[in-house]
Design goal:
By secondary structure, the protein is mainly alpha-helical. The chain has 2 domains: 138 residues, no CATH class; 171 residues, no CATH class. The chain has 10 helices and 10 strands. The strands form 5 sheets. A two-stranded antiparallel ribbon has the order 1-2. The chain has a two-stranded antiparallel ribbon with strand order 3-4. Strand 5 and strand 6 form a beta hairpin. The chain is elongated, with a radius of gyration of 26 Å. It starts with a helix and ends in a 25-residue tail after the last helix. It is an enzyme of class 2 (transferase). It comes from Aphis glycines (Soybean aphid).
């Protein structure tokens, strides 16, 4: 028995509100810090106009870039693994299994070898270079798609996400192919703002504790605001620096957070440097080729040809012959003829976030064939 639509709506609102608590917390901290820095420091304590104007100007420039990057990270929807995709070389690939093929796949859940053969037949012409630990095709039974390289299923977003790095509660979104640049800029400008605020307030914090100055004996709540602002900015700068340094390292090696803990599996074994193209090209894959646009949270993926989210260039040490495009790894065939399959069945399948339901209780789970 289905719950009334009003109850489902209330539950959905409650869930989204709970998920948004970390974002609301950050925005509240930011609003208070703006009040403390602009009003209590620059407009009340800094008496020199020649000093307060540059303080405010630099602070607002950093703040705008930070908010721009932060909101782009939050509101950019993670790119889901598509049912079909047209790549840069105008090749059309189908990743979602049609209903007929999925029913054939489900006929005998115990026969894993037949399921593996069905997936291999279906994925024979797909640009796939990575596999499960048992050299099977990476398949998601919730989305009913063959996973493109570097994609993973996010249980929070309820879909397979292209080049998924991790799901971050502080942005209430998946950090992935579609917003990874924005996320790094968010960390960079957040760290820069904390360092700038700490550097411009430390002078007054020292004066508050200096017995030779008049500020020590002055009363006022501004002292508490400025002191707390200095310590909070200092603590946040340390945490943001550690995250920023780690992700800069990952970008230089062309790895995601998931790949750093579980290296991608190629046919000849796991290789953590499988997508490492060299530091310069690795950075271009995330930030694009236009260096002047790197500091701005705008989409520069059209300015780079190093991966379109579905397929990615690989390290030369990983032979291209490992792909199913160039080798017949498993000669076992099924009764399904994909070569003469009616492609209209594929093109008529459309996927939306709502349709990719993860609550299909009738579909059995094939954990042996699924790599998360």
């Amino acid at each position: 028995m289905e719950a009334p639509s009003s109850k489902r709506f209330c539950c959905s609102v409650c869930v989204h509100t709970v998920k948004s608590i970390p974002v609301i917390f950050i925005l509240c901290i930011l609003a208070w810090s703006y009040y403390a820095y602009v009003y209590h420091l620059c407009l009340s304590r800094v008496t020199s106009v020649e000093l307060s104007i540059p303080y405010l100007l630099v602070y607002h420039i950093i703040l705008v870039l930070f908010l721009w990057s932060y909101f782009k990270t939050i509101f950019t929807k993670p790119s889901g693994a598509p049912p079909n995709v047209l790549t840069d070389d105008l090749s059309l690939y189908y990743f979602r299994l049609p209903e007929e093929v999925f029913e054939e796949f489900n006929k005998n859940p115990i026969d894993l070898s037949r399921q593996s053969a069905i997936l291999r037949d279906f994925a024979e012409n797909l640009p796939i270079m990575t596999f499960t630990n048992t050299n099977d095709i990476r398949f998601c039974d919730k989305c009913k798609i063959v996973k493109p390289d570097r994609s993973h299923h996010c249980s929070v977003c309820r879909k397979c996400v292209l080049k998924m790095d991790h799901h971050c509660p502080w942005v209430n979104n998946c950090v992935s192919y579609s917003n990874y640049k924005y996320f790094i800029l968010f960390l960079a400008y957040g760290h820069l703002m904390c360092v700038y605020v700490a550097a411009t307030t430390v002078e007054y914090v020292i004066k508050f504790w200096d017995i030779t100055t008049d500020m020590r004996i002055q009363e006022g709540s501004y002292k508490i605001h400025i002191i707390f602002l200095f310590f909070i900015a200092s603590m946040f700068s340390l945490s943001l620096f550690s995250l920023l340094a780690y992700h800069i390292y990952l970008v230089s090696k062309n790895r995601t957070t998931l790949e750093s803990f579980r290296p991608p599996k190629f046919l000849d074994g796991s290789d953590k440097n499988g997508f490492n193209l060299g530091c310069c090209r690795n950075i271009q894959e995330v930030f694009g080729k236009e260096v002047l646009l790197w500091p701005f949270p705008i989409d520069t993926r059209l300015l780079t040809c190093l991966g379109e989210g579905v397929s990615f260039p690989i390290n030369k040490t990983v032979p291209e012959a490992q792909s199913l495009l160039f080798s017949d790894v498993n000669n076992q065939k099924t009764s399904i003829d994909f070569e003469h399959y009616d492609t209209s069945l594929f093109t008529s399948v459309l996927i939306s976030d709502d349709n990719m339901s993860s609550t299909d209780t009738n579909a059995p789970k094939y954990q042996d064939l699924i790599q998360i």
